[in-house]
Amino acid sequence: MTTHIDRRLEELGITLPEAAAPVAAYVPVVEAGGLLHISGQLPFKDGQLVTGRLGEDVALEDGTEAARLCGLMLLAQIKKHVGDLSRVTRIVKLGVFVNSAATFTDQPKVANGASELMADVFGEAGKHARSAVGVPVLPLGAAVEVDAIVQIG
Question: How far apart are CA 36 and CA 152, in angstroms?
Fold first, then answer.
């Protein structure tokens, strides 16, 4: 059965990646009280991790794309956990961590890559609260990591 979200993904030309397996001692998704708490997802492009530091060797546009790739992985994790993205009633919050040089201050612009994806896919229900934080290093040298809280019905 094709849902309205599946049709929307098709309209946007989006094919979801395979949900990534955890790289340490945690689970990708915990469901509690109608909310999915989704562990931080890393950006993969053509099967390769997007690495580097914004403000040093990663351009703003590439960082924004990396955040979007993290968002795609979040969607893959949601779909794997609940089976159907149309069960999402609200993207509640995104936490965006940007591997940043000390002088880089455009974390919110980088985070827009994930935020705009959620709004494009879910419309009004995709608009969310957000944190966009610069950090000196991320796991495996990733350029960006994004976690989420998602309400399902």
Answer: 7
